[in-house]
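Sanity check

After download, print the first record. It should look like this:
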Amino acid sequence: MLDDFAIRAALAGVGVGLVASLLGCFVVWRRMAYFGDATAHAAILGVALSLGFSLPVTWGVLAVATVMALTVSGLSDRWQGVDTVLGVLAHGALALGLMAVAFVPGARIDLEGYLFGDILSVSKSDLAVIWVGAAVVGGLLMWRWQALLTATVNPDLAAASGIDPAREKRILTLALALVVAVSIKVVGALLITALVIIPAAAARPLSRTPEQMAIYAALISAFSALGGLWLAFQLDSPAGPSIITVAVAVFAVTSLSRGLRA
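Expected structure tokens:
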């Protein structure tokens, strides 16, 4: 079954979408969208370093994304209104990564694939990395769900309950870095944050509880992955952007339905 590239693409899209949407709920609740952009854009620098040192791309991306995520987290803890710094880091890391790729000797790289994703070329080993990474992040979020939720809603209440809000934020930071590392082959560095945020944002108008929002976000993300692949086959369009386009369409529908109910 896995010899069929379409089956591999569908499994990769669903795997990344499910875990990205769960993490996306916390990103939306904490208003960390720009934080995600800075981490995702650093992935291209990780690709360049991996090629330069002959390392697996996933490990290089994970290392650089983790460093960037921890750096951004530390800056946001020190300063209020850190949007400008995040913008500089996000686009600076992307520019530096694009320059670094050009200087890797003898490297033949599909840069467009790393920027926008190349889900149709996912191999069996890529699929294993994606689902193992998704299982790790999903298990971590489920294990720390209540603590993460309390720290997100009310850090003071979390501290009074014996929960360290800074520790929970670091857990989210590391989870985001891992999602970036396993997602780059599916939707690319420029669209990873969209896959994290949009399904969660689309699920918000439909939900009454955090758990409902997480379930709806996962369903919307899986639908977007499969629907985007179908759209790409029908229109001969890039698969990664097609997945995000379907997610945006679902977001528009749920937002409109909320407006009509109001």
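If your output differs, re-run the checksum step. Summary of this record's structure: The chain has one domain: 5-261.
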